[in-house]
Automatic annotation (TrEMBL):
Domain CobQ/CobB/MinD/ParA nucleotide binding positions: 4-182
InterPro entries the record matches: CobQ/CobB/MinD/ParA_Nub-bd_dom, DNA_Partitioning_ATPase, P-loop_NTPase
Pfam families: CbiA
Membrane spanning stretches: none
Name the record gives this protein: Chromosome partitioning protein ParA
Amino acid sequence: MPVVVIANPKGGVGKTTLATNLAGYFASAGHAVMLGDTDRQQSSRAWLGLRPASAPAIRTWDISANQIARPPKGTTHVVLDTPAGLHGWRFNDVMKLAHRVVVPLQPSLFDILATQDFLTRLADDKRVRHGEVEVGVIGMRVDLRTRAAEQLQRFVAGLGLPVLGFLRDTQNYVQLAAHGLTLWDVAPSRVARDWEQWQPIIGWLEQPALARRPAA
């Protein structure tokens, strides 16, 4: 059972946007997906409360923000949204569950500096070095024509981590989230440009290595 963790110690970088849309993708593909939320703000859980019954089902589990539990039987895919300031026992528990860690990162100098230590820690983590957990970075709200995008790519490359893709700054995410929806719940023509940006991310997540690892 693949467990994908969305993590960045800095707040406001798009973790919940990534988590909800990734869960929406798995649900649209027919998987029994669970969206876990260990953030005290419980943004992902609140979003699930807005999700219409007609949309592909995404489940959650009833746990507190201070507890990380194993998902119940029957779940085939898990997406875990994590809080800002992820460290200590919570970081260790998340890494024990994770098959892959996705780090959303905005291309500003301040965001890069705030995330640098976390990415270094991930790259040095024993489970990552042994290939038990794979880590990838996604540039959020990025215009690829800017110098900031080049700076982000150079920074991540220096850590030896892959940049999975870049997602543009668009109201599509905001408007869909307000109704408990994702890119995968509306007509493709409405979000064609965004679907295209997600393709390399989905390709990385669906690599066979993810499916081969023993269940958590």
